[in-house]
Amino acid sequence: MKNYFFTCLALCLISASSLKASERDSLRLTVFDNIVYYDGYAQLVPLKVQEGIYRSNTSYTRKLNDREIALLTNEDVNMQVDLKAACDNYDRIANVALLLIEKGKNYPAVTKRIEIGRYITPFMDMNKQPNVRPYVWDASAIGKIVGNKSFADQYDFYIQMNVFGVPYAAQKQVKGCEGRNDVFIGNLYFDVKASQKKSKAVYQLIPIAYSDSLNNYKATDSLGKTTRTYTFKAEKNLKDVEFFIISSNHGANKNGEEYNRRVHYVYLDNVLQLKYIPGENTCEPYRQYNTQSNGIYGKTPKTDEQWQKFSNWCPGAVIPLRKIKLDQLKKGEHCLQIVVPDAKFENKEGYIPFSAYALGR
Predict the structure, then answer these.
(1) Third-level CATH fold of 6-193
(2) Which class does domain 204-293+303-360 fall in?
(3) Which SMART domains does this UniProt record tie to the protein (predicted)?
(4) Which residues does residue 354 pair with via DSSP β-bridges, in sequence order?
């Protein structure tokens, strides 16, 4: 296999920690710049990268420095991923994570892991425009985590950007991809309002789950039921508590879970706190980014009703970050439970990756 973008990657990563004004009233922190992802099933593609960058074919990780942490300790932070097409023309699951590693240790000695944002790549042909998909999230919760002095004294903070792709279809279907194994090119930024005051409140982080599989045939509390329960502990009495929930249904087999909308229930200490059905009203806004012919979009637009009959998520869209808000959470042990009673997982295929964490003042 040929390795592409070697020179570009080495040069671009030199500016990985740059800060600049992206708008008159905001600052932009560039975490990763034009990083190249390769076949997730292949052996590691060797690349020379900047010191402090940890990588695999599907993941890039680096530590935030003191200046970057000070910038992110803010009440108004947005995160943006710009994903450029290379030689994977299918829809894939990808995410960005915040890692906490004890002082004195290095990656991969991760102590705590938080999923900041999850998204689905479009069906992209790199030769067609647009060939870059921008994704944007509210990432203000990051500042509440890195702004905790006791945390900062105990941990170093790392950002990780994960994109799993494979080039096999594109090698046959996309002009210029024959023999190549580079799949996507990624950029990651944080935009911070320059005029915002720093938050003086001290927030406590409670990690609960990180992209844990949920189904009814293996990853479950009870075989035959789509239920997963997590026990966690609040070290102190907390106020203004927010739980952050990310879930998306996957399984592309016939009657697979990604094609069937199911009601999801989230309980806290056996009390229902959140009820939702994944999926958007329509996936048409993302049609422009799905430049590779595919069986999801087809050649003509679909009605809202057609989209709502089968799509749990849209290729090219952000997976929603759902929240549960509580006035208080008492010190001690608690349990969070997700239940999807109607999920079937035909032929014992498919899963629901579930992430959850809490922040309280």
Answers:
(1) Jelly Rolls (2.60.120)
(2) mainly beta
(3) N-glycanase_N
(4) 212, 247
